[in-house]
Design brief:
This is F-box/LRR-repeat protein 8 isoform X1. InterPro entries: F-box-like_dom_sf, F-box_dom, LRR_dom_sf. Keywords: Ubl conjugation pathway. The chain has 16 helices and 13 strands. By secondary structure, the protein is α/β, with parallel strands linked by helices. A 13-stranded mixed β-sheet has the order 1-2-3-4-5-6-7-8-9-10-11-12-13. The protein is globular and about 65 Å long.
């Protein structure tokens, strides 16, 4: 009797196995020699998602260790408040630092809440070690890491990963500890960087000017989060600096996320007319109508996504209708308060590219699900 899998070429099995969860890959490798060869094939592991909360339990260490060399892009999930999940993530990152200098991309995602006063030092130390070893790293995404990121990490990335193309540090921490100086050093050390996510306080006029330099590679995405006290106190970034950056990189998209910590006077400093805002997320404790009207009048050519979390009002309804009439390129709009029917009609009428919206005419139980436009 032929062994299972002998009827299929190894490359076909590998194509199938690459879509399996980690535990199923390990199980497939124990079926027969042909499946074991296919399950450990490098193409199976190029893009890998691992959940430390469930997938590593019962995993054979030698099997996982042998496959780490093949991982090029890793998305790693763990629960920081669960010790086994946390330790598994740290061990995996440490093993990668020792075995895989060719890692190209890393995305860390925390699930659930972290413990009170948890600085995440052990996790961040493992990230430091990986960045020291993985000099080929091109993409690093720490947006879902709920720990305070600092200058030391940015400088480690800057000098350890010269081929870096994207870096996202705009996480949900309540304290911003990445200074403008380290960001400027990052831009100088990583000339290929084309996407960057930061807290507002980490960005400076000098950094905008560095991005607009004539010899700079095309820059595509700048994601700014304004959510902590340092962001509220950040000096304004002049409109002329934004205008020069937009001229230098006409394809640049800016994503702005304004959180309740930002007072009204800071909002007016952030929303400059020349910023090429593609996505705007407003969750302000104060006035929301003014920023929506400002976006309608200045970001009509670039805005593709809007998210609003505010109290319902006639003024907000009118501002949303104005935005719908002016911003024909909108693809998504999500408003987490009840709106009047004319708001829904305005977006459906004036935004032909609309693909998804959350515009509720009556109160509904949460979570509110978006409506997909077919």
């Amino acid at each position: 009797m032929a062994e299972p899998g002998e009827q299929l070429p190894e490359e076909v099995l590998a194509l199938i196995f690459r879509h399996l969860p980690l535990r199923d890959r390990a199980a497939a490798a124990r079926v027969c020699r042909a499946w074991a060869a296919a399950a450990t094939c490098s193409t199976v592991w190029h893009n890998t998602n691992i959940s430390c909360d469930c997938e590593l339990e019962g995993m054979q260490p030698q099997y996982l260790s042998a496959c780490l060399d093949h991982v090029q892009n890793l998305r790693l999930e763990f629960v920081p408040s669960r010790e086994p999940s946390r330790l598994a993530a740290i061990e995996l990152l440490t093993a990668l630092a020792g075995r895989n200098p060719e890692l190209r991309g890393l995305c860390l995602e925390c699930r659930g809440e972290k413990r009170l006063f948890d600085s995440g030092r052990d996790v961040l130390d493992a990230v430091h070690a990986l960045c020291r070893a993985a000099r080929a790293l091109r993409h690093l995404d720490l947006r879902r890491l709920p720990f305070t990121l600092d200058d030391a990490l940015v400088l480690q990335v800057a000098h350890g990963c010269p081929e870096l193309c994207s870096l996202f540090l705009d996480n949900s921490t309540l304290v911003g500890s990445v200074g403008p100086g380290s960001v400027l050093e990052l831009l100088e050390a990583c000339p290929c960087l084309r996407a960057l996510g930061l807290h507002l306080a980490s960005l400076s006029r000098t950094a905008l000017e560095a991005l607009a330099a004539p010899d700079r590679a095309p820059f595509e995405l700048l994601a700014l989060r304004c959510a902590c006290p340092e962001d509220a106190r950040a000096p304004p970034l002049p409109n002329e600096a934004w205008a020069e950056l937009s001229r230098r990189h006409p394809g640049l998209a800016v994503e702005l996320e304004l959180e309740p910590a930002l007072p009204a006077e800071s909002v007016t400093r952030v929303l400059q007319p020349a910023v090429p805002v593609a996505a705007l997320r407003l969750s302000l404790s104060g006035d929301t109508v003014g920023p929506v009207r400002f976006a309608a009048r200045h970001y009509a050519a670039t805005l593709s996504a809007l998210e609003v979390r505010a109290a319902a009002s006639a003024e907000l309804n009118a501002a949303l209708e104005e935005l719908a009439e002016r911003c024909a390129g909108l693809r998504e709009v999500h408003c987490f308060c009840v709106v009047r029917p004319s708001v829904l009609h305005a977006f459906r009428t004036h935004c032909p590219r609309l693909r998804s919206y959350t515009l509720k005419l009556t109160r509904e139980p949460h979570p509110w699900r978006p409506t997909l436009v077919t």
